[in-house]
Design goal:
The protein has 568 residues and is mostly helical. It is built from 22 helices and no strands.
Length: 568
């Protein structure tokens, strides 16, 4: 089937979803009120709580939720289940589950003084849920930091052209933040200059790659891993206006440029899919495995951590919530769909035959890493657009830079979120552990250990299920919150039940299939089996807590919604 037709249908569907369903959710479930001061003003401290221009905040939110997720998930889903399966889940999941989850969790935090989702869960479902959910979130964030840092370090080692634009954009972002917020230079003029510098760095990186000739590959990886961890430490403690907001705005511009070039390539080349539409006979069942593998782009628990962790503390007006929360997720769905097209139609299916370039084939590219697979497919499609200044190699570099920028954003955002959970939920009563530096190191140290020793490879197998369990629990919390306010719960409770069932199903399959963690095959792993069963137990306990809350509060009329974090 032709990729242009598929992409056109997906884009039209997303527009209609945002225009009609997103507006219905806004008017009937959220009911924004711009007369109510947001936490960004109520608790403004210039570090974490700071009102942001909507364009900057959208850029931060999108860049943070995107990260590597909408690249890795669609690539693996296409490889295991076919391009049509992946596209269908992205289209349906994004509009009806993911965007609703992201928007409502953001606004839930805004109505609870900008507190994180675990703290809101405590208000809604009790302290047992609060602490256990907080532990799950913190562990998941440690996993994310470890794996994204390793992926980024490997990409920098494999593609030396990425080094200068990856680190250089951080300095450009600081200049942009100072220009807009301190020197009061016109935001549009300053942004244009910053974006120009960011793309100039790509030119510099392309012509002067930091190859580190003579270094072994693993030595390069460890160098970049150390640099990235140091970056996380510094960036996550800086005031949000210094680096986070402006860097993420630049990232969002790169996204739009990348999307435009990708769509232009699809229109010009009109490639047909080489990947199969559906893959049967896989050793992995489509349900539930595809629905936890392809998370970002459809629904992802990590998004509510960003929305309730950093975005809610920067929202200028409640009416901005829809474009930031719902709109950000819709745009991620567009990116995820583009990734499916890029690898499913831009690359030839399978492994490269002897004598042919490995970069032209899906399986051969994927062996070098998911960033390389995306970059090669993006370069192949955009290179066929006929633009004189864009060869396949340059286009591949642009695709790689776009993804790497998102990964950097997710790294320092995850570190900042881990600090919040460490201080607010896990050790709220231990004064010396609530120091910003100690809480940040308390999150980075285990992540660095997992990354440096390679132990992340084993534990990472549980990330998909734990990430989607966070989404399921968040949807349950939102359901209880809506019920307490006598608002419609059907748009949330059915997705919540689906995600709970999917998460438990995935964990159960991972434990009990013949090659599972507690099976007799080579996949046997007692530790992962025990952790999986513990996650199943957590899901059941919180689901029961939510059910009890719904029954207890049915028909109840609580205090006014504006009270600080109280159910209303």
């Amino acid at each position: 089937m032709n990729a242009f037709v598929v992409m056109a249908i997906v884009l039209a569907w997303f527009y209609l979803g945002y225009r009609f369903y997103g507006t219905w959710v806004e008017k009937n479930l959220v009911k924004p009120d711009d007369s109510r001061p947001t936490p960004a003003y109520e608790f403004e401290d210039g570090i974490d709580y700071s009102p942001a221009k909507v364009s900057f905040l959208w850029g931060h939110h999108f860049s943070s939720i995107a990260g590597a997720g909408p690249i890795i998930g669609p690539i693996l889903a296409t490889a295991w289940f076919g391009w049509a399966s992946a596209i269908f889940w992205i289209a349906i999941g994004c509009v009806f589950i993911g965007a609703v989850h992201d928007y409502l969790s953001l606004m839930l935090s805004v109505r609870h003084r900008g507190r994180g989702i675990s703290e809101v869960a405590g208000d809604t479902l009790g302290n047992v849920t609060r602490f256990s959910f907080g532990i799950l979130i913190w562990i998941t964030l440690v996993f994310i930091i470890a794996v994204f840092a390793v992926s980024a370090a490997n990409a920098l080692a494999n593609m030396p052209e990425l080094v200068i634009p990856t680190f250089g954009v951080c300095f450009v972002a600081v200049l942009l933040g100072l220009a807009v917020y301190k020197l009061k230079i016109n935001a549009v003029l300053a942004s244009v200059g910053a974006v120009f510098l960011a793309y100039f760095l790509i030119y510099v990186g392309y012509n002067y790659p930091v190859a580190l000739d003579g270094w072994e590959h693993q030595s390069k990886v460890m160098l970049y891993l150390n640099l990235l961890m140091g970056y996380c430490l510094i960036a996550s403690m800086l005031p949000v206006w210094v680096l986070l907001q402006p860097r993420d705005f630049i990232s969002s511009v790169k996204l739009f440029v990348g999307l435009f070039l990708g769509l232009l390539g699809i229109v010009a080349a009109r490639p047909d899919f080489t990947a199969p539409a559906f893959i049967t006979g896989s050793d992995k069942p489509m349900w539930p495995i595809m629905f936890i593998t392809l998370a970002c782009g459809a629904v992802s628990g990590f998004h509510c951590l960003v929305g309730t962790g950093t975005t809610s503390k920067q929202l200028d007006k409640e009416s901005h919530g829809k474009v930031v929360g719902y709109g950000g997720m819709i745009m991620e769905g567009v990116l995820a769909a583009l990734v499916v097209v890029v690898v499913g139609a831009g690359l030839k299916w399978g492994n490269a035959p002897a004598g042919e370039a490995a970069g032209l084939y899906f399986a051969s590219s994927l062996e070098q890493g998911w960033i390389v697979a995306f970059s090669n497919g993006f370069g192949a499609i955009v290179g066929d657009a006929g633009l004189p200044f864009l060869s396949a190699a340059v286009a591949a570099l642009l695709g790689g830079v776009m993804v790497k920028t998102f990964v950097m954003t997710s790294l320092d955002t995850s570190t900042r979120l881990g600090r919040f959970i460490f201080m607010e939920t896990l050790f709220s009563n231990v004064k010396f552990l609530r120091h910003t530096f100690i809480a940040t190191m308390g999150t980075l140290a285990p992540a660095y250990y997992l990354a440096a020793t390679g132990n992340w490879k084993n534990i990472w197998k549980l990330f998909g299920a734990s990430n989607q369990l966070i989404a399921a629990i968040s949807l349950l919390v939102i359901t209880a919150w809506l019920a307490q306010r006598r608002r419609a719960i059907a748009p949330v409770i059915f997705p919540a039940l689906f995600m709970v069932a999917t998460t438990i199903g995935a964990l159960g399959w991972s434990v009990f299939n013949k090659n599972g963690y507690l099976g007799s095959g080579p996949g046997h792993d007692l530790m992962l089996g025990v952790i999986s069963l513990a996650l199943i137990g957590l899901a059941l306990v919180i689901a029961c807590s939510a059910a009890f809350s719904l029954l207890k509060d049915k028909g109840a009329d609580k205090r006014h919604e504006g009270d600080s974090g109280a159910p209303a």
